[in-house]
Each structure stands twice: as C-alpha cells, then as structure tokens.
Amino acid sequence: MHLQLLSSPAAACLARPFRQLRKVLIGGALAALCGLPAVAATATAGQGGGVLQSRPAADGPATREFIAWVRATNNHRGQPFAVIDKKAAMLHVFDASGAARGSSPVLLGLAVGDDSAPGIGTRKLADIRPDERTTPAGRFVSEPGRNLQGEDIVWIDYDAAISMHRVRASNKADRRLERLATPTAADNRISYGCVNVPAAFYDALLKPVFGLKPAVVYVLPETRPVGTLLGLATGGAPVPGTTP
Fold first, then answer.
1. Average confidence (pLDDT) over 77-86
2. 3-state secondary structure of 9
3. pTM of the prediction?
4. Within the chain, how many helices (H) and strands (E) appear?
5. Is the model more confident about 223 or about 4?
6. Which residues contact 174 (CB under 8 A, 6 or more apart)?
7. From start to end of the chain, where are the E strands?
8. If you ran DSSP here, which 8-state letter would residue 122 be given?
9. pLDDT of residue 159
10. Which whole number is the average pLDDT over 95-124?
11. Cβ(24)–Cβ(200) under 8 Å?
12. Count of alpha carbons within 13 Å of 127, Cβ hemisphere only?
C-alpha cells in the first residue's frame, strides 16, 4: 500500500469524512440493462434513516456498449471492475463475473480533459492550475491504499495521485454533498482529479472488494470517442466479441 505526500493532489483525500447527506444511485437505462432496480437511496447519516426516490441515469449508448464489450471479451480478466462515465458523472461497479452490483453519482476533476499534466502527482496543490485538475481517462489496475490519516482509499493512478475516496464536506464552500444530490451532472466537477464517492456507496461496494485487492477501473474519455480508450483504430464504440 502506498502513502502519498501531503504536498501532492492526494492531500485532497485527507479531509475528515462527511457526516451529512449520503446518496446511492441505481438508475435508469443502465440499471435496466443490468437487471437492477432504477431507484436512488438517500440516507441521512447519524440517524440511520433513509428514503427511496426514482432518478434516471444519464448514461448514453456508448457507455452501455462499452460495458457489454468488457463482459463479452473478458477484458477485466476475471477481476471485479468499475466504469466511470465522466460525462454522466456516474460510477458503475461490477463483480468478477461481470454482474452489476450498483451505480452512484460521483464528483470528478474540475477541468474537462482526459490526460493528467506531466508530474502532477508530485506537485503542490497550490501549483496546480484549475485547467489541470482533470480526472484522466484510461484502463487502470486499481490498488488499495491509505492516506496519511490512515483512512482507506482506492488508488486509480498512483503516479498521478488519482484515487477514489469517500466524499468530504470539510470545505462548505465546495457544496460537495449538495452537488451529489442534484439531478444533473453539470455541477459534479469540483475536485483536483480524484473521484469523490458517497460514503455509504463506498463502504458498501468499494471497500469490501476494491479496498482489499487490485481490480480494474475504466475511466471513459470525454474529449474523444470511447473506443480510443482501448486503442481501437476507428475510435468507435467497442463491438462485443472483438479485442483491441
């Protein structure tokens, strides 16, 4: 397991856990494709209560086709995997057999873009411009880790200091919990690049699997065709039964 220096973007993973609104989403078209109920679960921490409300997912056909391709080709090599759709600001989690476990809205890097700036993982937060705060696209082998407070996180790209972790609400001005609660992905861009996950979803689906062993994380591009993620010549959506 790795520890990242406080002077790097991983310092954004160090704030205390939030104790307010938590939301888990299983929604819409992707849920129907995977045989999941299209409902959102919203719970208030501390009281243990929760309510259910419907909310459709915003995933497009390219995301659904990509997931079907991963399953058909076993590109995940029999490992649990996750797909992050940046355009919809959604995280989809699957077990080793390819069965869907659940989906949730997430917060992503402030800037639109599919690449990390060179050396960004070793730079101070104050030296990172807003336009460099991207969540990079790619196929990553995730790794369990801990921050300097000893809290568990899931590294997506350790060298670039990009991880999945529970959302923090330590800076009220960021309105991170409120951003997760809105029905649109338009306001889900706020982090330095890390993927902020609702705590209830993280603890239920990421920590027991991704938090214990390597897995595969696909971060879909937003500035180029999904097919370029795996080096497909046409750049189109992958076709089930084909390999890159």
1. 96
2. helix
3. 0.76
4. 4, 13
5. 223
6. 190
7. 21-26, 39-44, 49-53, 81-85, 90-94, 100-105, 108-109, 138-146, 152-157, 162-166, 189-191, 195-197, 215-220
8. G
9. 93
10. 94
11. yes
12. 11
Span 1-57, pLDDT tens digits? 343 333 344 444 433 332 222 333 333 344 444 443 333 333 323 222 222 222 344
Query: Which two structure tokens, joined as six digits, stand for 197?
Result: 């996950």
pLDDT digits (tens, 9 = 90+) for 163-216: 999 998 888 999 999 999 999 999 999 999 999 999 999 999 999 999 999 999
Per the listing, tokens 């001005």 go with 173
| Dihedral angle over CA of 148, 154, 155, 161, nearest 10 | -50
- CA distance linking residue 96 with residue 209, whole number of Å: 10
Specify the 3-state DSSP secondary structure of 160: coil
Burial class (CB within 10 angstroms; exposed 0-12, middle 13-18, buried 19+) of 69:
buried
User: What pLDDT is attached to residue 89?
Assistant: 95
Rounded CA-CA distance 100/76 in Å is 13
> Could you tell me what percentage of the chain is helix, strand and coil, using 3-state DSSP and rounding each to the nearest 5?
25, 30, 50
Pair 144, 210: CB distance under 8 Å: yes
Q: Is 239 left (phi over 0), alpha (psi -120 to 50) or beta?
A: beta
* Residue 24 three-state SS: strand
Domain 9-229 is found in CATH 3.40.50.2300: no
Q: What is the 3-state secondary structure (H, E, C) of 216-239?
A: EEEEECCCCCHHHHHCCCCCCCCC
Measure the CA–CA gap between 194 and 13, rounded to whole angstroms: 8
Q: Which amino acid is at 16?
A: R
